[in-house]
């Protein structure tokens, strides 16, 4: 077996392995001898199965094992030549060449390593910005929203239902003259104009009088969640019982405050308004961060910091982006890519630039997190996964187990580190609040 290796750059290497047929045969026989001592075959005592019998029955599988062991040795020997260790390898090695002829193998293996990333000077590209301010009007508007949210509904004497009113009504839906499951309710409460129902339904209710019945014709959206109803014409029979409105408090007082925060005895209106101010400020900051600061910083830092990218990881990212985009292709394109390998390769290459940027940013963020001592605990990851499960009505333990099996938890951790990092880089609140 002949092994040669060379570093392409600080993050990539190529190992060339020429494995002769004799080496493969010797390794196959060695594995067969070991297997013969362990395998159980009817008619032979344990440990006394002839090697020939083992080879006759399991040669194909044993040959694969022999080749794998030889490739592992080739990689180990190649790493020694370039003064690298196995634990420095990133991702799975890629065979960029594999020729097998007359029992001999001529292979070229690409290997990638974690790059050295120097982020010194990153502060120079942090965008300047002003800490978001909160006006009294914004605080009042937010409190009014909360007052509306907790306000009780009351029946009102009104002739005709209008947008903004709450309707108490019965309804039943029909498609092709047949009632469908989940399309019926009695004494349902709906805010007209809230767009909670499918397009056309709430508009069709406007103008109804109390006690009046009406057939409302609608069409389910093409992307409706129930496939049996998607893009179907439907008729809803409705009967209006009451018109209601919310009895909203004119201002925040001590009694209403207790309804908003029932479990806090020492809360005051002043403390609550300060809490609302903090919330609005945080919401403004997150909007500014996600829509302006973060994109600017990412573009600038990726341009400023340069290092060798691990090719194996870049190729994995290209594959991931291409797979994620597959469903967005037209049927014609899908058929074209299945039939034409060159077209498939060219389309895949379109994702290289974005993949390189994504991989580069991942390593930069990882290094910045170390520099700024950003850490994410296992408990934080657990809380994030559980919260996501509760939000979508999924069993939390099963959701966590699925994420473990699919290898998604590292991505969850990376997302949390990124969120913490950008908040840490851009947070000015503590420095500037004294001057407010």
Automatic annotation (TrEMBL):
It comes from the Bacteria. It is found in: Cytoplasm. Residues 164-246 form the PPIase FKBP-type domain. Transmembrane segments: none annotated. InterPro entries: PPIase_dom_sf (IPR046357), PPIase_FKBP_dom (IPR001179), Trig_fac (IPR005215), Trigger_fac_C (IPR008880), Trigger_fac_C_sf (IPR037041), Trigger_fac_ribosome-bd_bac (IPR008881), Trigger_fac_ribosome-bd_sf (IPR036611), Trigger_fact/SurA_dom_sf (IPR027304). Its EC number is 5.2.1.8. Consists of 3 domains; the N-terminus binds the ribosome, the middle domain has PPIase activity, while the C-terminus has intrinsic chaperone activity on its own. NCBIfam families: tig. This is Trigger factor.
């Amino acid at each position: 077996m002949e092994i040669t290796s060379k570093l392409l750059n600080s993050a990539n290497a190529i190992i060339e392995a020429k494995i002769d047929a004799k080496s493969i045969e010797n390794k196959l026989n060695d594995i067969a001898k070991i297997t013969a001592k362990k395998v159980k075959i009817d008619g032979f005592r344990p440990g006394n199965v002839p090697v020939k019998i083992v080879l006759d029955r399991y040669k194909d599988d044993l040959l694969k094992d022999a080749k794998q062991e030889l490739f592992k040795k080739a990689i180990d020997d190649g790493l020694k030549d370039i003064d690298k260790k196995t634990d420095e390898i990133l991702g799975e090695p890629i065979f960029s060449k594999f020729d097998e002829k007359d029992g001999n193998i001529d292979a070229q293996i690409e290997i990638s390593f974690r790059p050295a990333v120097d982020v010194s000077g990153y502060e120079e590209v942090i965008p300047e910005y002003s800490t978001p301010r909160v006006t009294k009007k914004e605080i009042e508007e937010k409190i009014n929203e909360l007052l509306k949210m907790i306000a009780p509904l009351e029946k009102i004497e009104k002739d005709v239902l209008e947008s903004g009113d709450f309707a108490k009504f019965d309804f039943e839906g029909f498609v092709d003259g047949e009632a469908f499951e989940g399309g019926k309710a009695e004494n349902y409460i709906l805010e007209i104009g809230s767009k909670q129902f499918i397009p056309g339904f709430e508009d069709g209710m406007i103008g109804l009088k109390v006690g009046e019945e009406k057939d409302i014709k609608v069409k389910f959206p093409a992307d409706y969640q129930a496939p049996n109803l998607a893009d179907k014409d439907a008729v809803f029979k409705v009967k209006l019982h009451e018109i209601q409105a919310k009895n909203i408090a004119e201002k925040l007082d001590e009694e209403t405050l207790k309804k908003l925060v029932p479990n806090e005895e020492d809360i005051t209106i002043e403390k609550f308004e300060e809490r609302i101010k903090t919330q609005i400020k945080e919401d403004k900051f997150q909007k500014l961060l996600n829509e302006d600061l973060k994109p600017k910083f990412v573009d600038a830092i990726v341009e400023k910091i340069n290092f060798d990218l691990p090719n194996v990881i870049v190729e994995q990212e290209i594959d991931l982006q291409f797979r994620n985009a597959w469903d967005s292709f037209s049927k014609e394109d899908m058929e074209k890519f299945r039939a034409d390998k060159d077209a498939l390769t060219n389309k895949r290459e379109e994702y290289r630039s974005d993949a390189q940027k994504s991989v580069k940013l991942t390593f930069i963020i990882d290094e910045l997190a170390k520099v700024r001592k950003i850490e994410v605990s296992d408990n934080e990851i657990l809380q994030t996964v559980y919260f996501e499960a509760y939000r979508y009505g999924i069993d939390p333990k099963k959701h966590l187990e699925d994420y473990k099996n699919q290898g998604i938890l590292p991505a969850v951790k990376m997302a949390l580190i990124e969120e913490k990092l950008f908040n840490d880089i851009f947070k000015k609140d503590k420095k500037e609040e004294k001057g407010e």
